[in-house]
Write a structure and sequence with these properties.
two-stranded antiparallel ribbon; 7 helices
Length: 193
């Protein structure tokens, strides 16, 4: 990558950092569609088919991006009846009962469960959630083959030892990933001119 290309990517990352900051709070409102903008940003920054913008810049600058995630593999719950799951998705800073993984590991890690009408749980990765939300809602492009689980998943709430969340599962997860991404952009650009 040339220095002018890297400079352009850094400029773009600064824009995304500002947009994430602006839309993060708006996405708290359960009636807001700001979470769709976050999904679009995250798709471009973290999961685009070519090396995503943030990951590409981090690689060029020789920086490894880490995330703290629950030290529990949700895939253990697949096929079982589920009544709730933890609201802890990802953090930039260490959390209790968390382990450190690379962002690439996080993107391929199961982060949410959807229990179907038979009560059997199926897991979804961060990459599937980001890409699915951006594509199925027409943010990145329109995928007319909606997955059956997507509509009910949009309405599910998060339940954990702190009680029930006031935001839906998808919005909560996207906001958590967006907060991590905002910090990651700052880290990657910390010595950029």
């Amino acid at each position: 990558m040339t220095s002018s290309e890297l400079t352009e990517i850094e400029r773009v990352l600064r824009n995304y950092q500002e947009w994430i900051f602006e839309d993060y709070e708006k996405a708290k409102d359960k009636h807001s569609s700001a979470y769709l903008k976050l999904a679009g940003y995250l798709r471009i920054l973290l999961v685009d088919p070519k090396l995503p913008v943030l990951l590409r810049c981090a690689k060029e600058r020789g920086k490894t991006l880490y995330a703290y995630v629950p030290d529990f593999d949700l895939r253990q719950l697949e096929g079982k009846a589920i009544c709730g799951w933890s609201g802890f998705v990802i953090s930039w800073t260490p959390e209790k009962d968390a382990k450190r993984v690379t962002i690439e590991e996080f993107l391929d890690r199961a982060i949410c469960l959807y229990s179907d009408e038979k009560g059997l749980a199926r897991t979804y990765t961060a990459k599937q959630l980001i890409k699915g939300t951006a594509n199925w809602e027409g943010v990145a492009h329109l995928d007319l083959k909606r997955r059956k689980a997507f509509e009910p998943m949009k309405l599910m709430s998060i339940v954990d030892d702190r009680g029930r969340s006031n935001s839906q599962e998808i919005k909560h997860a996207l906001r958590a990933i967006a907060a991590w991404t905002h910090n990651a952009i700052g880290y990657v650009l910390d010595d950029a001119s």
